[in-house]
Amino acid sequence: MCASFSYAAKPCIRKGDGKFLIHRNKRTSARAEVAIAVPKKKNESFYPELSVQGTGKIIHEIVQRQSQSNGLAMHDVCRKPDFNPIFLEEAYDQCKNICEEYAKTFYLGTILMTEERRKAIWAIYVWCRRTDELVDGPNAGYMSSSVLDGWDKRLEDIFEGRPYDMLDAALTDTLYKFPLDIKPFKDMIEGMRMDTWKNRYANFEELYLYCYYVAGTVGLMSVPIMGIAPESSLSAQRIYNAALYLGIGNQLTNILRDVGEDASRGRVYLPQDELAKYGLSDKDVFSRKVTDGWREFMKEQISRARFYFNQAEDGVSQLDKASRWPVWSSLMLYRMILDAIEKNDYDNLTKRAYVGRTKKLVTLPVAYTRAQQHPLLFNFNTKYV
């Protein structure tokens, strides 16, 4: 279907009885992590509440569709494709292997989920990685609008029960178990499309939209999978809003961590008007000189990312108990990346902030402990760093 995927050269082959045969595929790589949370009460801040405007409408429509269908998954209204059980087991095993190799910390957290949920998360993770690979993978040079058009059509086929290969089949099976909406998936493809023509952002509103497309969507995909604690009394709208906040925070952190790397590719994912506010421009980014103006600019950007993490934090405790650990881990580790940028004296032009293995290992049991807290006993006034 497209030159960008060597592992997608052939569709699954059906036996005479209509069952799928196993067709082994190469592993893929890209970036995607899944997390959801619930926001605090509206906070008076200079940061725009954009979700109430653009993305808020999208979330409202998703919630409305789920409400109208009573939250039914596809297996409640459609006939499930007749997958060979061995084929399906192998499909999920491949998704598991990809997640384990490229998102080790997050994979560890998924082990505590129920079998059905962790398989679903692996399937979504892999689809997101493959989508990202279209633009940032080793074959990105073959990228064109027709490739993304084909990937979009392929997504529709998956949602209609017609997977193209083994990894697609895992997502198709997931759709029959959980009430996933196609909108976030389509919007992620739009984010990839945006990456093919846009590498400058006039202001934060433009950058926010990009963050929604490539990361906020992942949170929205995950809400039906992660589940909400039975004790939670929060509305679906608030829960989906929270998924968005954490996705935005994660992507802003990715951007700040990768400024130098992106600059080497001629990309500047920073608000141009805010650069100008501190007397900076693309020229300063490409020169890779850390000045006082750059440090002040970075302080504001880090503050914004933490703002979104703070909006998301309280709701982690409202997830289903079996889903909280990987989300707490993601939230805490991403915050530590921001800390690392500060410790590097805001030099993300020549240095790449990272969280060392020891710190990761120390963080995991702390995240696990918090994941065990009862939703009603969580102290919403406590802030973790």
What does this structure look like?
- This protein has 385 residues and is mainly alpha-helical.
- The chain has a single domain, classed as Farnesyl Diphosphate Synthase (Orthogonal Bundle).
- Helix content is 60%, strand content 0%.
- Helix 9 crosses helix 10 and helix 10 runs antiparallel to helix 14.
- The longest helix has 25 residues.
Helix content: 55-70%
Termini separation: 46 Å
| CATH architect. name | Orthogonal Bundle
Instruction: Name the CATH homologous superfamily.
Output: Farnesyl Diphosphate Synthase
Give the biggest sheet: none
Count all strands and give the number: 0
Query: What is the string of helix and strand elements?
Result: HHHHHHHHHHHHHHHH
Mean of the pLDDT scores? 80
Which segments are poorly predicted (pLDDT under 50) over 5 or more consecutive residues? 1-52
- Topology-level CATH name: Farnesyl Diphosphate Synthase
What is the global morphology? globular
